Amino acid sequence: MQYTLRTLPLAQRVLFSCFLVLIGLGYLAAILFLYFVDVEPHSGTGEGMIQGIADKYHGVPTRLEIALRGPMADRASIADKKKVFKWIKSGAPEDTFDTEVKPVLQANCVRCHSPNSGVKRANGEPVPSFMTYQDIVDAELIDIDTGLTIAQLARVSHIHLFGISLLVFVTGFIISMSETPMWFRVVLIAAPYAAMFSDIGAWWLAKWDALFAWFVVIGGAVMGMALAVQILLALWEMWLARSKHA
Ligand code: HEC
Hints:
Strand content: under 5%
Bound molecules: heme C
Order of helices and strands: HHHHHHHHH
Number of strands: 0
């Protein structure tokens, strides 16, 4: 006869149960870890989880870029702004500063952004000076952050793909012996794999467009729910459903 979770011998039910309980605890620890790494550090800045994830994978635009797209947007022509954005995108190198960027700043900005302009921030401090490359570096206006590198993404991706696919192979194998309808088991077994594909795929896509941070969260949520249902359902069938029918 074919075993189901309900009719498995005691030894297998103990083995499966120990595994499922520790996997469940491992998953909770992983969520806690993510909270401390990705959510908590941002809470002070008023950033939500989605923004935190977007920053991590996509990076954060430089303050020079933010200013030129925001409050300083109409201080320079579109062509001049394009020159500056292109320079930032190429890594804001010092050697092309004098030819590409300095003329733009000289023509449009230094009448306010120089030490003796007397122009102040709203909080009374002088506005950052744009006289030299070093001034701009010192004012932290071109700190470039493009998120995780491809090498870092490849590292975390392969660890997660290998690790999680094996883990949900075991939980899926256990749930394949459930007595729930076949279609339900098939969905429950495939769901974590689909979720992992969405989650890890979205890390890479978020590097390109920050909007994909949403799919990281959706993938993570589906993974968590599928794993929780697999674990609780299996435990229930092995121990509680058994006593009713045995
Ligand atoms: C008429 C004066 C004036 C001109 C011209 C001007 N700015 Fe500003 N800029 C300011 C003031 C005032 C602030 C400070 C705003 C604040 O923090 O209260 C500022 C702030 C900034 C900041 C700092 C933002 C931050 O993150 O702290 C940047 C970067 C900046 N400007 C870029 C530029 C660029 C680039 C140009 C030229 C294309 C330019 N500004 C032209 C007055 C000017």
